[in-house]
Each structure stands twice: as structure tokens, then as C-alpha cells.
Design brief:
By secondary structure, the protein is mostly helical. Helix content is 71%, strand content 0%. It has one domain (2-102). It is built from five helices and no strands. Helix 1 (2-23) runs parallel beside helix 5, helix 2 packs antiparallel against helix 5 and helix 3 crosses helix 5. The radius of gyration is 13 Å and the shape is globular.
Length: 105
Amino acid sequence: MMFVCHGIAKTVGTAIAGTALSLGAAGMAVADSTDDGAFFQTLAADGVMFSGSAAVYQKAQVVCEAFSAGMSPEGVQAAMLTDSAMSPQQMAVFIAISVQFYCPR
């Protein structure tokens, strides 16, 4: 049963990250300090908990760099999960919010 749940979580996470990437294709995201606060509030509101805002901001930048380098949404999620305590669902939300706030489109 655990394998089925893991597969579903991975599929849902990938779909969320892919949707975020495609939604972001229309404009250009430029972050300022106001966006940082909104970014952290949005993460918290969506159940993504963290400690150390500088590390979280840095991870958001890694997400953008990975997409800029041509990595697939699945690849970004897998790479970000490597040394993270987040679940696949939380990581998918984190990636989507990072794209929304920080990634150039």
C-alpha cells in the first residue's frame, strides 16, 4: 500500500510543479523584500513549514536555477527532495510557490 501512496504523491507533486512552471510562462517575476514576506506567508498558509528563512529563500533560488538549466519538473522535485524533510506534496507546493514568486518567466 505504501508504494501506491508514494506513486500517487509523486504524480500529484509532479503535476503541481509542472502546472506552476507552465503558468509562469507569461511574464517576469522580480522579487523584492515585500515578495519575501508574501512568499513565506504563502508557504505557511499551504502547510509548508520551515526553519531559517535564508535557507528557504536559497532553496527557492535553486528551484529557479534548475528550471533555467532545463531540468524537468520531475527532476527538480527529485533533486530538491534529496536532502529535505519535506514530503513530495510539500515539495511540489514549495516548487510551485518558488516559481510564482522568484523564477523569471
